[in-house]
Specification:
It is built from 4 helices and 5 strands; from the N terminus they run αβαββαβαβ. The chain has 174 residues and is α/β, with parallel strands linked by helices. The strands form 2 sheets. A 3-stranded mixed β-sheet has the order 1-2-3, covered by helices on one side. Helix 2 links the parallel strand 1 and strand 2.
Length: 174
């Protein structure tokens, strides 16, 4: 399966789950002085996450072209050292703006990977936030753990912390 087929199947899958397909935002952001480039799939939805604007659709899906070269999490220093830091990449995203949460997101992700993309269920591991003991004092994500426990054996659920979270971006919002 090539990237074009993956992209097409991803969009079609979530369109079938009542998501509106939206186009990729430009890589050079014109109306946001806080970002020089689109560095994450969530950038074009920033106004919704921050409560500035109400979305027209509560479910959307997109494939977003991204560029990371600087900022709080400077990926440029990490490029080439591992398999997951890149400067230019594309994020596939399904987004809910108050319409659904973990139960649907988790079960749909599993369905997409195992039924649409045909990835062997026995080769997949999942991660759950283990909590943090720092100033944030965040608890373990027991809800996600309980949902995943109904899908995969406990020995394939990996606990991860804030340091493991590659998606953590700004101090406030995306």
């Amino acid at each position: 399966m090539n990237s074009k087929e993956i992209r097409k199947q991803f969009l079609a899958f979530f369109e079938g789950k009542k998501h509106k397909i939206v186009p990729s935002a430009p890589m050079v952001i014109k109306d946001d002085p806080t970002l020089l480039f689109t560095n994450a799939g969530m950038n074009q939805f920033k106004e919704f996450f921050l409560g500035i604007t109400e979305p027209k659709n509560t479910r959307v899906v997109d494939t977003q072209k991204c560029l990371r070269v600087s900022g709080k999490h400077n990926d440029l220093e990490e490029v080439g050292k591992d398999t997951y830091h890149h400067t230019m990449f594309e994020m596939l995203g399904n987004w809910s703006f108050g319409d659904y949460f973990k139960e649907e997101a988790i079960t749909w992700a599993w369905e997409l990977l195992t039924e649409v993309f045909k990835i062997d269920k026995d080769s997949l591991y999942v991660s759950v936030f283990e909590g943090s003991q720092d100033a944030d004092a965040l608890g373990k994500d027991d809800e996600a753990y309980a949902i995943w426990s109904k899908i995969v054996p406990a020995d394939r659920i990996i606990m991860g912390n804030k340091k493991d979270n590659l998606r953590e971006m700004g101090d406030q919002g995306p």
